[in-house]
Amino acid sequence: MKRKWLHILFVALSVPIRAVEVPCGTWIELRATTSVDDWHFDHWSDGDTSAVRQVEVTGDAHYVAYFAPNCGDYPALPVVSLYDWLILLDMRTINAKGYFFGEEAVTWYRVRGAPDKLTDGASADDERMGTGYSLTIDQSFKGTGDYYASVDVSSSPSGVLCTDLMRSLIVHYSSTTPAAVPPLLEPTVVKPNEAQRLLRLNPNAPTTVTIYDIAGHRLQTLSADGVERMSLQAEGVAGCYQVVVQNGDQRTVLRYIVIK
């Protein structure tokens, strides 16, 4: 019985072309799978959408399996930090996955009711908050809310096969109620590496102090138990820094500026 070649090509994933030789009239199983996170099988070159299928070999044939990243409402984009005042996309992790886009492609929304389907503009009621890699929430904003970023990756220069919108993880924001006597940082305008003091801590509760730069990168974390004050040292590079103080159940965000 005459043998025929069956060529299988997987598109959008780094795998080699494979060919098998089987007798005519044989039924074989084609199976399209991927171990790549955030990707899924889309369709075969002949239009079949079954990832696992049976085909009869009647002659030379080529089958191409197409894969694509999870787009649409799939929450594939991580958020790096959530403060009382700022939400950031984790651009380092996003770029490492092969997604590259400009700030103009990012739009932030506050959820009203249930999160909208990104492609369903007719029923969209989520509140548009702004654009860019980060969202600054006004400290006077009262109440709570769920926020997410919608990203248009249809013109992404990365070559990723995604012509839709992607969504970040949905994050929950709750405005902080200030304590009657919040912690105090002094001085707040300093020179590089100048000594600082964190005062008015509750000695009956553990304290954790985390320092961030203006881009949201964590620089250092300090901890102490049973203290009313802590000694800090300003960063050595000019800029604006955030000091997040967790003193028992009380969370306070302080700021200081390093000048040359």
Description:
This protein has 260 residues and is an all-beta fold. The chain is built from 1 helix and 23 strands. The chain has one helix at residues 91-96, and strands spanning 3-11, 18-23, 27-31, 39-44, 52-56, 61-69, 75-77, 79-82, 86-89, 106-110, 127-131, 134-136, 144-152, 165-168, 171-174, 184-186, 189-190, 195-199, 207-213, 218-224, 230-233, 239-247, 250-258. The strands form 6 sheets. Strands 7, 10, 11, 13, 14 and 15 form a 6-stranded mixed β-sheet that branches. A 5-stranded mixed β-sheet has the order 17-23-22-19-20, with no helix packed on it. Strand 1 (3-11) and strand 2 (18-23) form a beta hairpin. The longest helix is centred in the middle third of the chain and has 6 residues, at 91-96. It is elongated, with a radius of gyration of 27 Å. The termini are far apart. The relative contact order is 0.13. The mean pLDDT is 79.
Task: Give the overall form.
Answer: elongated
Q: Quick one: how many beta strands?
A: 23
| Chain-averaged pLDDT | 79
Give the N-terminus to C-terminus distance in angstroms.
85 Å
Strand content: over 45%
Largest sheet features: 6 strands, mixed
